[in-house]
Amino acid sequence: MKSVVVRSVSKLWGDARAVDNVSFDVEPGTLAVLLGPSGCGKSTTLRMIAGLDEPTSGVIEIAGKDVTGLTGSSRGVAMVFQSYALFPHLTVADNITFGLSVRGTPKAEMATRLAKVAALLGLGPLLARKPSQLSGGQQQRVALGRALIAEAPVCLLDEPLSNLDAQLRQELRHEIRALQQRLGITMVYVTHDQTEAMSMADRVILMRGGKIEQNGTPADLYERPANIFTAKFIGTAPMSFLDLDGGRVLGLRAEDIAVSRDTAQGVHATVTSVEYLGAEALVTCTLGERPVLARTRGAGAPAVGARVALSWEPAAAHVFDASSGNRLAIDPGAAIGPSHFQTLQSQGSINA
Amino acid sequence: MQPRRDSRLNIHVQGWLLALPAVVLLATFTHIPAVVTVIDSFYSTPRGVRRSVFIGFDQYQAMLADPIFWKAFENNLLYALITVPLAIGIALGMALRVNGRIKGRAALRLAFFTPTILPMVAAANIWLFFYTNDYGLLNQIIRAFGFANVNWLGSNATALWSLMAVTIWKEAGFFMIFFLAALQQVPPDLYEAARMENAGAWTVFRRITWPLVMPTTLFVAINALINAFRIVDQVIAMTGGGPNNASTLLLFYIYQVAFSFWDSSYAAALSTVLLLLLGTIALAQFYLLDRKVHYR
Fold first, then answer.
1. Which residues pair with A31 in a beta bridge?
2. Which of A167, A344, B166, B216 could form an S-S bond across to B182 if both were Cys, CB 3.0 to 4.6 Å?
């Protein structure tokens, strides 16, 4: 049985389609990330799973049950808000147990569960404090505790780390993932940060303009992007694109491109900038008018202005249809390596 | 060191100069009269050729034995006790009503606020029409239901209560604005977090809204309390304190003593008591507001 099923769900605000016929499901005990730029409909989708907004059309199932008309705890989901939404007048303990007390849970049980959650998140010494006396990271933990104490099978997180600094974000990323795996709960996690998505998710659902662009494992999205949008959005260094003949686009990851000073072989290009990162360097070259990003060892990076030769394994090439942006299936023999590219270029059919 | 001390002195002089207009106005019209009033209360009222003489606490002793003072004090306490909670309750209710997404929200807000823009005397005259014995609106209504006429402003039993109704009607709309501002400060996320837990409307009000508007409630309550002890215009316009002092309030009594009986020294003593009372309330306001606005 799936933990969360979203079937043909749309949400209209007036005439605007915030979410447009979206379907996906989440396996129990896994972490699914809804990823996308702002305004792509990921938060709206999450709010519909939470029951805070009702879909205009379509069905949402939690643990195999149609949950239309139910909200939050009564449909078996808990939520962590982007702003944490902690009650400023309540102590940490009262914030965490708010839901339990609303449902009339006995005091003794409440205390046991609070102690458990507090230990899990290291909140023990902070229980008597007010939210305003906590740091951002601590507030985040309290929000997490409030979601976890309900022991709901599904936990929803709406950009939970966006208000924290980079260091803390990384720590909490690990912590949330570890908690999710340890407790075996299902998490649906909304973010616009592809690093967060790639490092935490079992499945990434990439959205744009209210539609799903690709739904797969992080490796799927990175290694076999279904379209140019996915290829551009995923990966710390953006993929480089070169126009091919016949309305096709060649996509290359920076780490797949080898930079060589020996210009006897490969495609010739000029180095325009070098970003030194220590162990490695990001080298931007221009090929005709197009920038091409390559990743080299930090120590051996070429100098700016150098003439270099670029080469890559034919199997590393991604080919897309220029008009639809979709990935084109290429059989291994026809894959586009540097030599093939050179031939095409000399024939004048390449607009690089 | 020398030039630095000069510039410091300079800053202090500048500061005082900037504060001067406000200090002069406050001192001339508030502080000096207050102090003079307190001093006057220890002297007898000058009459004709008789100069005023120092009489110590005589006025205050006379006050303790003055049944009208006690009646006014009692009336005023009752007035505060009834009007303050009712006005606050109605104001909060109206604010909650017009804070939601409803049709004609702006018109409704304006309607609730209208009594506030009316001058008290105008409002009092409108209510005089409602309360009038024969053709008054209220009596027409109760007659339609078969009850006998009530002499709202003319009978011991109802005069004070009729005045209270006007105060509540006039103040609730004003206080609503404060509550509305407070309600709009509450982040909507908090209500959504409560919705996630399926908290009912009453639970949400009791556990989230009410504590979060508490500082405003306190602020409004103190101001309403001070207002309750400063009411004079509608007493003058509607009942003149009657019948038989049934609707006499402290400030109205002071006004009577000072400008009808021309006993300025006794009026000064009464004013001093009122001043102490209001001062205590104001102090309580500062103390409580500092304490209770705990979550910010």
1. A187
2. B216
Judged by phi (left if over 0) then psi (alpha if -120 to 50, else beta), residue A207 lies in beta
Q: Under an 8 Å CB criterion, which residues of B touch A? A: 187, 189-190, 192-199, 203, 207-208, 211-212, 214, 294-296
- In chain B the first and final C-alpha atoms are separated, in Å, by 41
- ipTM (interface predicted TM): 0.83
Beta bridge partners of A273: A284
Question: Nearest C-alpha of chain B: how many angstroms from A78?
Answer: 7
Task: Report the distance separating Cα A157 and Cα A175, nearest Å.
Answer: 14
Q: How far is CA A113 from CA A92, A107, A134, B152, in A?
A: 14, 10, 22, 61
Strand, coil or helix: A283: strand
Instruction: Compute the distance between CA of residue B241 and CA of residue B253 in angstroms, rounded to an integer.
Output: 8
Question: Would you say B212 and A89 are in contact if contact means Cβ atoms under 8 Å apart?
Answer: yes
| DSSP label of B30 | I
Q: Which H or E run contains A309? A: strand A307-311
Cα separation, B175 vs A61, in Å, equals 46
Question: In one letter, which amino acid is A94?
Answer: D
- Per-residue burial over B94-128, b if 16 or more Cβ lie within 10 Å, else e, is bbbebbeeeeeeeeebeebbebeeeebeebbeebb
Looking at the complex, report in whole angstroms how far the Cα of residue A62 sits from the nearest Cα belonging to chain B. 15
* Segment A317-346 mean pLDDT: 77
CB distance A21 to A160 below 8 Å: no
Judge whether residue B182 has pLDDT over 80. yes
User: Which residue segments constitute the domains of chain B, with CATH numbers given?
Assistant: 63-292 (1.10.3720.10)
Is the model's pLDDT at B288 over the cut of 80?
A: no
Give residues with Cβ within 8 angstroms of B162, minimum separation 6: B127, B131, B152, B153, B238, B239
Q: A4-223 belongs to which CATH class?
A: alpha beta
* Burial (0-12, 13-18, 19+ Cβ within 10 Å), A137: middle
Transcribe A229-252 into DSSP letters. HHHHHSSSSPPEEEE-STTEEEEE
Which residue ranges does chain A devote to CATH 3.40.50.300? 4-223
Q: How far is B80 from chain A (nearest CA, A)?
A: 29
**Distance in angstroms (rounded) separating the CA atoms of residues A113 and A120:** 11
Q: Which one-letter DSSP state was computed for residue A352?
A: -
For residues B68 and B47, give the distance between their C-alpha atoms in angstroms, rounded to a whole number.
Answer: 23
In three-state secondary structure terms, A28 is: coil
Contact A330, A246 (CB under 8 A): no
pTM recorded for the entire structure: 0.80
Question: Does any CB of chain B come closer than 8 Å to the CB of residue A73?
Answer: yes
Distance of CA A104 to the CA centre of its chain: 38
Q: Which residue of B has its CA nearest to A143?
A: B193
Within 8 A by CB and 6+ apart from B12, the residues are none
**Where are the alpha helices (H) located in A228-335, listed in sequence order?**
228-233
Question: In angstroms, rounded to a whole number, what is the distance separating the alpha carbons of residues A170 and A161?
Answer: 9
Among all chains, which residue has been given the structure tokens 């210009």? A263
pLDDT tens digits along A247-265: 888 889 998 988 888 877 7
Of the pLDDT bands very low, low, confident and very high (cuts 50, 70, 90), residue B296 is very low
